[in-house]
Backbone:
């Protein structure tokens, strides 16, 4: 379960301060798919970054499964992310100098997992890329890169998967494949999936939709609410 | 740990092309150090063998007076306590020799008689003109070996007999080269070598003789300094002198030490250049890796793990680069032509284990030292940039000249990075001191280098401001070049730093080398004098001058004839003092002269030298003397003091009117401790000496000596030609060594410069691609790059050249202790070459950027 208590985020802009997120409270139950939607600049990615511990809020605290990540040091956060959070980016962000399978192995190696090779191979098979394991990111298509990124995010079997516009950089057919993988992950592993998206089709598949505008939550709804 | 090692390995695999230059920097630096050290060690072995030959042993103990029994006993006890492996005694004394019979028997000649023991020589070989090898048996039963000029002067040959001190000796051979004969020492006659027991038995060593007693010893190198210092300490007041082959009192020893210091400094120079390369590569590398670092942090890697992975990578590259460097050194040394080797007195070159160990450890240390500061940047990388891009959340700092701006900047100084920079500085001082074998030199060099870095940094900031107005230029290329110099994340300061320091050292080494070589050539100009005439009587002077002018070598200047007298100092009286006080070395006899001008190697440091053509009357109540700086220092005499001299039994007070400094390095013009104002000595009993360059070919030279003997039977000629040839050979050796070393330094410096500039292209790829997409032609982009790089090159060259002049001055004056001359040509050429080199390399390295299709670049970024 994710709990955001009175979270806000302001950044300096020139001589004044710019508020990206106004103070908000939010609870996300475990095991569901949550879509965060809203126009550009509404604060979606900032909110996701805060949940992932990639950024620190200006006020408030964040608890994930009871652990207060806003009180953690950078290194403790990194270790927490390694074991609890998987992250999928719009621009994939694979390590360009590593092959697909090596990219999947990295989080396992960081965590000191036993036999990372076998687990990485299994994960690649799960996203349908067994044959492409020894290719470098530059040799893969966008959709394939994003599938590698999902396999990597799942490497340590995290209870929480965060995805920032996972289909934003893909054509609709490929995007559809990626959406299907994310939904499957949620169904089969009971992984909580929180995703930021512009994609109405993707948002419609979520259990819960949170709509943001100008740094404020304007609506939260159950499945289908955002689409309507 | 596994992650760290695996990541390091993968990164090396993926980035080796970009890191190639890192690798090359380390390899070139290590290669240069290993090659130089190995060559230095070989040459040093060769040179120290020479030094031993010149000294005559590892240690030479000498005295000018017969030893009292108690002195002999305690000296022998000291020698018995040292690990002496061989010993030979030697006594030299000037005396007269005449043929036993035949023509010329009446004309006795001054000779420098030397008696030696059976073990002579300990080092070097005595060569005979007919090619026989010397053995002590040749001296048995009153045998003698002589110099060819004595035979010419006396008109006799091998097998004839000469009489010395009432004893007849049979001439058994002609000495061609005698080991241990020093160029600096002035000898009174031609060498005659006999057995030491014959000399002791001759009665020539009675009280009042001017014999020099020497004990030459061979001992392990480790014992030499300790033993010599002990003897110096214990017997200083008993007129015992000690020379060792290492002794700095020795002129050749000084030159060797200078050469050694120079070589050590050069090793460090290359090392630092390599380090700058490493630093610049690492900095660019870290910038390119920011995103990867963010991803790793996002995947759960701690900063420590990421840092460890990159440090492991640096270590891997450092080790690999060092190994490649050793291979380079091996190849380089194998490529040295044998002729150079033999010129340097070295039979074979090879890598020495200590050089390899030093090179590899320094290679790894430098890789780490220079890369840690830029690597620490990864600590600041936030994974947030993966969703936010490079957005900075901190406001830009205020202008640095305001108090707030300074505070902003200070508050942003990364403490760990600052600490790492301090560790790096201390590490560099340590390595530099180790290499130069002097903490002072190490610190001076590193501080000098840091000072240039600061100046270059400020110059970089200055140039960004200074060229701003050009940004309004109509030329697109010019405008964008200027904008590039000042844009955020620009490379201006980095290039200035790398290239400026590079050119600083390259120009500095070149200026230093030129100064050193000039120093050696002054010391031993080819047209220098090679013969001394002694005992010319005053009434023979005019005739002698005419004789010499008619026969002088075509390229030689006029012969110089100088009046000399011998004098002792018996006291000094300061103005106002009641009487004369005693001085140290009261009994020492000096050779004095009088003249009305300063020689080119003399400068007056205090008082004034008398005007020319103004001799004092012969019976002047007070005579005037100019003393050398050393006399001023050791006797504590000043201008205005009166010194009392004993000149041939006449006691003469003389007022000190000036202190002169003689550049002893420039020995062409000789040097006198005391020069008197002409007049009072005009008719005093005196002799003249002649300094000249005699014909070089053996036949005319022999004829010259025969003519001289016939015309001036009383005058002795001392031929120092073969001594000069020996010294010239040694100087030539050192010259080659300095040139080879300077060449290696210049080569590596230029290579590293090229790399440092080429590295910056990665920063331009993206920008060039965008400009090309917007329609910029190859020509426009090329002109833009050329202008930008040329500006940077010019500025770097300017600051580098200025720094180099200061550096070479400091090293010459304070480290090598030789006179310094500015080298404007070296500076201007260095500056021009830096500008051209940077412009050409910058454009050439970016050639593929200019040719590449922009889409590929944009996608890759």
Residues:
């Amino acid at each position: 379960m994710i709990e955001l208590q009175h979270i806000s985020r302001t950044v300096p802009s020139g001589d004044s301060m710019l508020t990206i997120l106004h103070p908000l409270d939010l609870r996300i139950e475990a095991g569901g798919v949550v879509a965060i939607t809203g126009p550009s600049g509404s604060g979606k990615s900032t909110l996701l970054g805060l949940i992932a511990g990639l950024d620190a809020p200006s006020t408030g605290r964040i608890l994930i499964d009871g652990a207060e990540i806003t009180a953690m040091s950078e290194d403790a956060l990194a270790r927490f992310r390694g074991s609890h959070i998987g992250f999928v980016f719009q621009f994939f962000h694979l390590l360009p100098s590593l092959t697909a399978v090596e990219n999947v192995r990295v989080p396992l190696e960081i965590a000191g997992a036993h036999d990372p090779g076998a687990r990485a191979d299994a994960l690649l098979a799960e996203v349908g890329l067994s044959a492409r394991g020894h290719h470098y990111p530059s040799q893969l298509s966008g959709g394939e890169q994003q599938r590698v990124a999902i396999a990597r995010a799942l490497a340590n079997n995290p209870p929480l998967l965060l995805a920032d516009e996972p289909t934003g950089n893909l054509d609709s057919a490929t995007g559809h494949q990626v959406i299907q993988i994310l939904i499957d992950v949620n169904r089969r592993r009971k992984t909580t999936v929180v995703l930021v998206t512009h994609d109405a089709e993707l948002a419609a598949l979520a259990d819960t939709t949170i709509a943001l505008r100008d740094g404020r939550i304007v609506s939260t709804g159950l499945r289908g609410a955002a689409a309507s | 740990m596994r992650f760290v090692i695996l990541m390091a390995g993968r990164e090396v695999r993926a980035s080796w092309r970009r890191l190639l230059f890192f690798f090359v920097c380390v390899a070139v630096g290590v290669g240069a150090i290993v090659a130089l050290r190995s060559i230095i060690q070989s040459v040093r072995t060769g040179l120290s063998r020479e030094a031993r030959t010149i000294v005559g042993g590892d240690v030479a103990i000498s005295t000018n007076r017969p030893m009292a029994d108690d002195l002999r006993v305690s000296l022998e006890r000291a020698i018995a306590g040292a690990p002496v492996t061989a010993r030979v005694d030697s006594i030299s004394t000037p005396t007269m020799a005449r043929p036993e019979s035949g023509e010329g028997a009446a004309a006795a000649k001054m000779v420098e008689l030397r008696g030696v023991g059976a073990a002579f020589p300990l080092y070097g070989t005595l060569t005979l003109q007919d090619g026989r090898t010397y053995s002590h048996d040749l001296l048995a039963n009153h045998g003698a070996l002589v110099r060819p000029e004595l035979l010419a002067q006396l008109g006799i040959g091998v097998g004839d007999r000469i009489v010395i001190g009432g004893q007849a000796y049979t001439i058994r051979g002609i000495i061609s080269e005698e080991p241990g004969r020093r160029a600096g020492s002035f000898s009174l006659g031609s060498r005659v070598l006999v057995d030491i027991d014959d000399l002791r038995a001759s009665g020539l060593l009675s009280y009042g003789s001017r014999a020099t007693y020497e004990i030459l010893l061979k001992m392990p190198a480790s014992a030499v300094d300790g033993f010599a210092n002990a003897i110096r300490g214990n017997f200083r007041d008993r007129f015992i002198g000690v020379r060792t082959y290492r002794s700095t009192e020795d002129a050749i020893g000084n030159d060797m030490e200078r050469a050694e210091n120079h070589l050590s400094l050069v090793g460090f120079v290359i090392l630092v250049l390599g380090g700058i390369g490493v630093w610049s590569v690492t900095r660019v590398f870290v910038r390119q890796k920011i995103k990867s670092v963010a991803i790793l942090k996002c995947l759960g890697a701690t900063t420590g793990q990421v840092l460890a992975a990159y440090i492991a990578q640096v270590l891997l590259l450092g080790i690999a680069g060092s190994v490649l460097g050793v291979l380079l050194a091996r190849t380089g040394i194998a490529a040295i032509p044998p002729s150079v080797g033999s010129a340097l007195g070295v039979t074979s070159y090879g890598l020495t284990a200590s050089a390899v160990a030093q090179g590899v450890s320094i290679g790894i240390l430098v890789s780490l030292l220079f890369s840690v500061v830029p690597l620490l940047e990864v600590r600041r990388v936030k994974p947030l940039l993966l969703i936010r891009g490079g957005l900075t959340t901190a406001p830009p700092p205020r202008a640095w000249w305001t108090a707030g701006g300074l505070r902003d900047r200070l508050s942003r100084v990364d403490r760990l990075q600052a600490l790492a920079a301090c560790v790096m500085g201390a590490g560099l001082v340590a390595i530099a001191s180790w290499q130069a074998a002097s903490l002072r030199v190490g610190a001076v060099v590193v501080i000098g280098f840091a000072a240039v870095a600061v100046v270059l940094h400020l110059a970089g900031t200055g140039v960004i401001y200074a060229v701003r107005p050009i940004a309004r230029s109509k030329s697109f290329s010019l405008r964008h070049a200027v904008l590039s110099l000042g844009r955020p994340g620009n490379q201006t300061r980095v290039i200035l730093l790398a290239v400026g320091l590079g050119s600083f050292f390259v120009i500095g080494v070149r200026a230093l080398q030129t100064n050193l070589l000039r120093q050696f050539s002054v010391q031993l100009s080819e047209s220098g004098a090679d013969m001394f005439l002694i005992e010319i009587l005053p009434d023979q002077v005019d005739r002698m001058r005419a004789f010499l002018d008619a026969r002088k070598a075509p390229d030689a200047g006029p012969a110089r004839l100088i009046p000399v007298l011998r004098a002792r100092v018996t006291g000094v009286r300061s103005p106002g003092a009641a009487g004369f006080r005693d001085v140290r070395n009261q009994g020492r006899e000096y050779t004095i002269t009088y003249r009305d001008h300063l020689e080119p190697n003399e400068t007056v440091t205090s008082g004034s030298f008398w005007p020319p053509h103004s001799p004092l009357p012969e019976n002047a109540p007070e005579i005037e003397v100019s003393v050398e700086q050393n006399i001023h220092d050791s006797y504590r005499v000043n201008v205005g003091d009166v010194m009392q001299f004993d000149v041939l039994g006449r006691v003469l007070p003389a007022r000190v009117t000036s202190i002169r400094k003689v550049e002893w390095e420039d020995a062409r013009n000789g040097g006198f401790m005391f020069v008197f104002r002409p007049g009072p000595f005009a008719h005093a009993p005196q002799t003249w000496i002649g300094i000249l360059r005699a014909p070089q070919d053996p036949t005319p030279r022999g004829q010259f000596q025969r003519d001289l003997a016939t015309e001036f039977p009383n005058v002795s000629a001392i031929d120092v030609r073969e001594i000069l040839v020996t010294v010239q050979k040694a100087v030539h050796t050192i010259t080659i060594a300095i040139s080879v070393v300077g060449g290696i330094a210049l080569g590596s410096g230029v290579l590293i410069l090229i790399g440092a500039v080429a590295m910056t292209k990665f920063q331009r790829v993206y920008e060039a691609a965008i400009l090309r997409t917007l329609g910029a032609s190859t020509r426009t982009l090329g002109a833009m790059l050329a202008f930008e790089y040329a500006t940077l090159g010019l500025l770097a060259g300017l600051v580098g050249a200025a720094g180099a002049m200061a550096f070479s001055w400091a090293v010459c004056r304070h480290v090598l202790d030789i006179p310094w001359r500015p080298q404007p040509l070296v500076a201007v050429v260095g500056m021009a070459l830096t500008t051209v080199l940077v412009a050409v390399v910058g454009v050439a390295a970016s050639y593929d950027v200019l040719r590449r299709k922009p889409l590929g670049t944009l996608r890759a970024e």
